[in-house]
Amino acid sequence: MFRARLAVALVLASCGGGGGPAPGQPDPRDVSGNYELTYDDRLTIKLDVGGAVREVTQTGYGGVVDFGMVNGQPTTLDLTAFCAKPEVKCPSEAFWAKTAITQPNLGANRLDLQQLAVVNDTVHVLPAGRSAESLSGLVDHAQGDQFLLGLGAQGGGSQGCVALAVSLAGGRFSRTGERLETTIEGRTPQNAPCALDAGVVDAGVRVDAGVLPDGGLADAGVPFSCAPKMITRRVVPPGAAVEGIADGKVFLGWAGGCAFGPLLVGATLTFETGFTGRRTGRFDPPPFTPAPVVLPDGGLDAGNDGGP
């Protein structure tokens, strides 16, 4: 989804896009600011060996993860030692606990899809001539202010420990006063919106030309059922200011050889953990060099087995 919208955004931007808000008026899309992140440290760790996946969940980075017997050998991972490797960046190192976030092109157009720049603010005052690390990805204001950044480029120099291209940080920016509302609405068996009328559209009358109420197509001349379904939506007050980050996720992957050596050089090891963020003030970064936009291979759902 993000890749398709990026292509559209680039085309529109090349054609001029559109102006931002009137001078002096705040932009309701603006999510810029400094943020403090809190990781839940509930880790989902997966080892994929030839398509056979072993999954372990645990809290924190201490201790040893036991994957059982793999290729006839007992296979364990010392998390503390693994994350201590200089060439390995585990979640809070790959996506920092203190960040400064901005949208460098926000004032240039009215596009929903905007570039997002994230700066490492862990050390705010740097020695002269030194720049903070930065990442660039995308934030989609038409999809609940969801954002996505690729972390694969953040791997170390050792070929066996370079973070895989599917590695990502993502989530959504939360707004002041947002709430969830649930309503009962009609849905067809294909989950298309429809009008409720005793469970059957127009009491079973055939649909003209097979057109569903949302513009989709049904089988021509065949009646379709319409059943009530609970639909939950997030409602954000108009003009609400951003207050933090919700539904955050860091997903990191490495070639198996990074953790287990030649025994599992063809395997894949992944970590997934969640985080939230709190906006602490206006955008106030340390000196930094802007990074190019990097998205994970696989798009928004990379590493997501059915989650949000």
Structure characteristics:
308 residues, mainly beta, 8-stranded antiparallel β-barrel, 3-stranded antiparallel sheet, 15 strands, disordered N terminus, disordered C terminus
What does this entry look like structurally?
The chain is mostly beta strands and 308 residues long. It has 4 helices and 15 strands. It has helices at residues 2-14, 79-84, 91-94, 256-260, and strands at 33-39, 42-49, 52-59, 64-70, 73-78, 98-102, 113-120, 134-140, 146-150, 168-175, 179-187, 193-194, 227-235, 242-255, 268-281. Strands 1-6-7-8-9-10-14-15 form an 8-stranded antiparallel beta barrel. The longest helix has 13 residues, at 2-14. Residues 1-19, 154-158, 198-222 and 299-308 have low confidence and may be disordered.
How is the topology of this model organized?
Layout (H helix, E strand, L loop, with lengths): L1 H13 L18 E7 L2 E8 L2 E8 L4 E7 L2 E6 H6 L6 H4 L3 E5 L10 E8 L13 E7 L5 E5 L17 E8 L3 E9 L5 E2 L32 E9 L6 E14 H5 L7 E14 L27
